[in-house]
Design brief:
The complex is a heterodimer of chains A (210) and B (211). Chain A has 210 residues and is an alpha+beta fold. Chain A is built from 7 helices and 8 strands. In chain A, strand 2 and strand 3 (22-24) form a beta hairpin. Classes of the chains: A alpha+beta (210), B alpha+beta (211).
Chain lengths: 210, 211
């Protein structure tokens, strides 16, 4: 491949993030994706209305996140007594039991990071939708990439299912309204990520600033 | 074959956050951060192999208390049952919850071992300069990075049980010290996977007649 090495920085080429091979940025259509020819890593995606859709999903996710914190996730009944728990109670329970390290881990991965991901997406995309530049898109994009691995809502759902099954053996457990909201929040967050095209994000930012 | 054209070979660095391709000349003359997203620019992850080794050793050591110490105690009607990670899986299997038992076994027992073994293999293969099956190793890395977080299922399950089941003598669940070690294994192996730079698998391709 002939490439012009005389550039400061360029969007005409990209290096594969997993093997460093240079690819020229292809013209791909909406709904298509481009993968690295050497290692197979995903390099390019394009979605129709990427930024609008991602924003819509993030706002939906935030709504469900609020709902998920208002009602119990599970209710547990035994011999006429009952207990129910909210999303945040798992972290609090660890903290109160003296396992503060686990309290912090659970708090970050099930509450803070999932909420932060949605808030960062919204504060990034909403001003852009209104034709303004977000307060620090550079910082927000970096924050998003650091938060991503630690937001573990989808894993938390499996944790709830396992807890539910374990309890069923010796007590009555019922699913609370918040569990439904929580599942929908996870679905909306996943969709917000899947529809977000970072290339579109940077080029839209350039338009706004111009 | 001739050496492939990479960012490194043309004297450029690809931003690890936003993917912008920046020339080293620009970095030398202007700034060390990405002109698009301000992230610090590195050609390869810093000290990748040493960091991955250190984290893997730490994870392997903590894996022992994570499995030996109990993670959970259930007291119900004066009877108490204590479970280790593996004990929890066996109990689920015995109570006829085969599907859930398999999920928990995969997430809590298989994934941590697989992850440590896979990263060890990747690090050693790079250090020995292995030239074969690069694409399969790249796939192994991608898979390892993807599955790592799923081991947290057990920690979340415990957090829910201890928050929910607190009816004193009737039924109470408490956490055990194994849970701390187990969560540490999951988090440390996540950092180990992040520290490994998959580009190292490919860096010597085309340097001699390997194909």
């Amino acid at each position: 491949m002939e490439i012009n090495k005389d550039f400061s920085y360029t969007e005409a080429f990209i290096a594969c993030p997993e093997c460093d091979l240079i690819h020229s940025t292809p013209k791909i259509r909406e709904g298509e994706q481009g993968r690295c020819i050497r290692c197979g890593a995903l390099l390019f995606v394009r979605h129709k209305n990427s930024l609008n859709r991602s924003l819509a999903f993030a706002l939906t996710g935030l709504m469900f996140f609020i709902l998920a914190n208002l009602f119990p996730l599970l209710t547990f009944q035994m011999e006429g007594q009952s207990e129910s728990n909210r999303l945040i109670d798992g972290a609090i329970a660890f903290w109160n039991a003296g396992y503060w390290e686990l309290g912090i881990v659970v708090f970050i991965s099930s509450v803070v990071a999932p909420l932060a991901v949605l808030l960062v997406l919204i504060t990034l995309l909403l001003p852009m939708q209104l034709g303004r530049s977000p307060f620090s898109p550079q910082f927000q994009v970096r924050l998003l990439s650091h938060l991503k691995p630690w937001a573990m809502s989808e894993i938390f759902i499996l944790g709830i299912i396992v807890a539910f099954v374990k309890l069923q053996d010796f007590a009555d457990v019922s699913v609370g309204l918040s569990l439904v909201a929580f599942v929908l929040m996870v679905a909306a967050t996943v969709m917000a990520y899947l529809t977000l095209d970072e290339g579109a994000l940077w080029s839209r930012l350039k338009e706004i600033r111009a | 074959m001739t050496a492939p054209v990479t960012a490194q070979s043309i004297g450029a660095i690809s931003c690890h956050v936003c993917g912008l391709l920046v020339s080293k000349r620009f970095i030398a003359e202007h700034r060390a951060d990405c002109p698009r997203c301000d992230a610090a620019l590195h050609s390869r992850k810093i000290n990748s192999l040493n960091r991955t080794w250190a984290l893997l050793i730490a994870a392997a050591i903590l894996y022992i208390p994570a499995n030996v110490y109990p993670v959970l105690t259930l007291i119900s009607f004066g009877r108490s049952t204590t479970n280790t990670i593996m004990g929890g899986v066996i109990e689920l299997a015995q109570s006829g919850q085969a599907v859930i038992a398999v999920i928990v076994f995969v997430a809590s027992v298989f994934v941590p071992i697989f992850k440590i073994a896979a990263l060890l293999f990747l690090v050693v293969s790079v250090q020995l300069g292995l030239k074969v099956q690069r694409r399969k190793r790249a796939l192994l890395y991608r898979f390892t990075e993807f599955i790592g977080r799923w081991s947290m299922i057990d920690i979340f399950m415990i957090s829910i049980l201890i928050g929910l089941v607190k009816l004193q003598a009737l039924a109470t669940v408490t956490a055990g010290p194994g849970a701390i070690a187990f969560a540490a294994v999951v988090i440390i192996t996540m950092f180990a996977a992040m520290s490994f730079d998959p580009r190292l698998i490919w860096d010597d391709e085309g340097n001699d007649n390997d194909g």
